[in-house]
Every structure is written in structure tokens, then in C-alpha cells.
Amino acid sequence: FFHFYAGICSALKLTVPSHTIHGIEGQPLHLSVDYNFNATASEIQIIWLFERSQSNPKYLLGSVNQRVVPDLEYQHKFTLIPPNASLRIDPLHLSDEGNYIVKVNVRGNGTIAASQKIQVAVDVPVTKPDVHTEPSSGVVEYVGNITLKCTVDRGTRVAYQWMKNGKHLHAGPNYTFS
């Protein structure tokens, strides 16, 4: 009996992105999911859940034979894109970062099921940098030091690089970085 059951299980293939999906805050994000099976189906059910670390998974939406049943709290944010099991998140917020779980059930001569997890990271675009000089006059000739401070208001994974005449500056006797 066990070998027969294992054979049935492998009949449903669920394909999801293999790496973390990066989306941009405020933009829509498409989670592409495909499934196929080699069985006769009377019903196809798709369920989407969302989990943040240290919290229980939340139901987002589900469908049976393409009739979608959303969680009313999220019905305007999450959309199922038939005929496959893809999910559209619109708009994407920082709080949407986490794991999305898709489960597909196919009922025919018995039920076969498969589920997969997709990790989503949300990136915030970097704002225009502000540069301040100390002393503020910016004119220091032959004596003294000048400090240039660069800051950005928002942005994930911000990296700073100073350049002079189009060439990267490196630490040395004339330049120190902090």
C-alpha cells in the first residue's frame, strides 16, 4: 500500500521560484507557480498562506476549480492568477516580507496534494543622498581638514562609495572613511 501511495504523490508537480523573490515596496509582485499532474481531476483546490517568523500562518485566499474564496481582510491585496496557481500581491509593503505557502490538492480517484514555500524580501528604493560639509564654507586650502557627510532618508541594503573626478577614493594619508 505504501509504494502505491508514494507513486500517487509524485503525480502532482508544483513548480515555484527556487530563490528568494525580491519585490519593491509600493509595487506589485508576482509569485509565479505552475502545477501539473498525470491523473483525472474532478476538483482542483489551491490554497495560499502567509507566515512571518514566530507567527502562525495566515490564510490569504483559496480556490476550487478556479472559483476564488478570498480572506475578506485581504481581498483587495492578493489575487489568484488562473489557470495556474500564481499569486499577485499589490501593493507590496514591508510587512509582506516572509514566507508564502502554496498548496494544491487534486481530487480524482483519490486525492493528491503538494505544497511549496516561497520566500519574499521587500526592498525599499534608496532616496536621493544629502551631502553636508564641515566647515560649511567648503573652502579649505593647504591647511585643516574638511568632513563630508552623506546620508539617505530611506533605503534597504544601502552602500556608500565616494568618488573624485569619476574615480573611486580609497583610504590613505589624505582620506579617511567612517
Automatic annotation (TrEMBL):
Stretch forming the signal peptide: none
Family annotation (SUPFAM superfamilies): Immunoglobulin
Keyword Cytoplasm: yes
InterPro entries, per the entry: HEPACAM_domain, Ig-like_dom, Ig-like_dom_sf, Ig-like_fold, Ig_V-set
Chief localization: cytoplasm
GO terms, biological process: centrosome cycle
Keywords: Cytoplasm, Disulfide bond, Glycoprotein, Immunoglobulin domain, Membrane, Signal, Transmembrane, Transmembrane helix
Subcellular locations according to the entry: Cytoplasm; Endomembrane system
Record-annotated Ig-like domain positions: 129-178
Membrane topology of the entry: Single-pass type I membrane protein
GO CC annotations, alphabetized: centrosome; Golgi apparatus; midbody; spindle
Pfam entry (one): V-set
The keyword Transmembrane is assigned to this record: yes
Protein name, per record: HECA2 protein
Organism: Vidua macroura
Gene, per the UniProt record: Hepacam2_1
